[in-house]
Give the backbone structure.
Amino acid sequence: MVDTSADWIVSRTGIHRRRIAADSESTSSLATAAGLAALKRAGLSAADLDMVIVATSSPDSLVPATACRVQAALGAFGASAFDVNTACTGFLYALTIASRFIETGSTKSVLVIGAECLSRLLDWDDRNTCVLFGDGAGAIVLQATSGTAGVQHSILGADGRGGDLIQIPLGSGRRPSTQSVIDGSHWIKVCGNEVFRWASRIIVSAIRQLCLETGLALDEIDWIVPHQANDRILHCAAKDLAIPLDRFVRNLADYGNTAAASIPIALAEAAEGGRFLPGDRLVLVGFGGGLTWGAALLEWG
Ligand code: COA
């Protein structure tokens, strides 16, 4: 469809393959599947949930929230439900909101999902974006616990001045939808090179800030679970932080950039592969449209 090659994509991004949702699927159906898998693993039922949060920048619709569709599909009728849209940082924002609610004591069990159907928002004639993104979903259940395991600290940041660098301009306020389809503003637009340089800096500064605020030394981090946007960003971060690359959980090669879903997919895959041991210190780090970024320190239970 576009002038590109497998060699270019692999060497410039690290992506070998990715998943595209079937016509019958949507962000909410992927989110529901991930949510069910997380509940099963946690040994909980949907009735146990107090809250469902879906981080996504490709919601099924503006209203209702995708989280409400998921709540209905799961039958989690005792749970509040809402979406968080901070693009690729969505999962970090949702995780932080969920852990703060749990810390207040008012909320016991929260299903936090990152889910995207970005293939529907890709301009397949734009080689700058159509080779990068994939569809998917990942989920975790957060619960109140008396032990030390869990989310120990998180930081969040935003700089709206960089909003134009990653955009899906279609919305409710700026221009009528009919006009948007004519001028292509329903497609994802990315200033790749500028985002690349910014992302390579912010991933490092977010991890450093998290370490500063928690007193954690860089060499005490067992695993970094980063947003999977470009393997070269992770190579740069590993070099700048002097942390071996094999302590970064990387699965971009198999999924492409799944935005808000990338961190929970990487987390779930690594957990299923038995890579984390009880007591391991994990740093999750995300960055993306907004511009936004975030990092969280977790102790694996
Ligand atoms: N196939 C072949 N050539 C391509 C291409 C593709 N799919 N996409 C872009 N190019 C070309 C560009 O047109 C440019 O050609 P030119 O020099 O003739 O203009 C050339 O490759 C280099 O472009 P550049 O933007 O400098 O490449 P890059 O090294 O920055 O890699 C990205 C491009 C998109 C892979 C990289 O910038 C990136 O990963 N950015 C961050 C990803 C992102 O934005 N994620 C979303 C938020 S987390």
Remarks:
- The radius of gyration is 18 Å.
- The domain at 6-148 is CATH 3.40.47.10 (Peroxisomal Thiolase; Chain A, domain 1).
- The mean pLDDT is 96.
- Residues 4, 8, 12-13, 88, 127-128, 131-132, 166, 190, 192-193, 195-196, 199, 229-230, 257, 288 surround coenzyme A (CB under 6 Å).
